[in-house]
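Repro:
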Amino acid sequence: MQTVAHILNSKQQKTVWSIAPSAMVIDAVKLFADKGIGALLVVAEGQVVGIVTERDYARKVHLLGRSSDDTPVRDIMTSDVMYVRPDQTNEQCMALMTENRLRHLPVMDNGKLVGLISIGDLVKDIISEQQFIIQQLEHYITGERG
């Protein structure tokens, strides 16, 4: 079982993008598009106070006819942010994401933000782990040393 620390180390994109709660939603949407991401951590005074996603925009702004220019991020963000630690396994993360219908999890270590993992990061890691096991089994069956 791989850990969150391993997943973070293998990620190509290590930057965790964030936005202030007072920023307008349009700024968040521009960051989503510019950086090719689907979530931003909402940070105030160095602390994670929420998370805002493309889903939040679609459901809480667009469908309700609100204006992206006049709506602050704090009005649509999720304040109760679930997170994981670097020592947790990919299986634990997948269970947490599945049970709570999450696509992104901040990674906190002793109260400090150290990364962000997505469902895509987990799927990629699990597939890689399964491919490695298959290769090892094939080598075992054929008697090859690898």
